[in-house]
Design brief:
mainly beta, 4-stranded antiparallel beta sheet, 3-stranded antiparallel beta sheet, 1 helix, 5% helix, 43% strand, elongated, disordered C terminus
Amino acid sequence: MNGHLKEPVDLTRVTCNVIMKFGPVKMLDKQYRLPDLLENLGARLSGDPRPAAGPWQQTWKLQLPEAVPVAEHRILLRARTDNGQNFLALDIALNFSHRFHPSPTSGRTDSRMVHAHTDADGEQAAGACQTPPRPQRK
């Protein structure tokens, strides 16, 4: 993530509201503190946990749990600082169809990795799931 922080932020106190949808059905609607959410997804806070105002850059590779069912999902994440200010917003579309979902014995782990980019002030958001290329038909 690349952005500009308008004020210092204590990342250990950022609260994230995560909604995971399958079509119109909410499968998950839960609050997390940012360090706990990252830990659940196989990542952790790195760098300065209390960055000052100014340019900010952060990269996390997130591992989705195998329990996520085969389907097309939307993950909406809204994060706020400890004083209630908007911190970031992500709207991520994930396609875990049978075509892209690896079998447990395949030994592949990269197709369940999520990479996302957003502005730190939450004004724009985009995301993508890394999936293998679609096979060409002859």
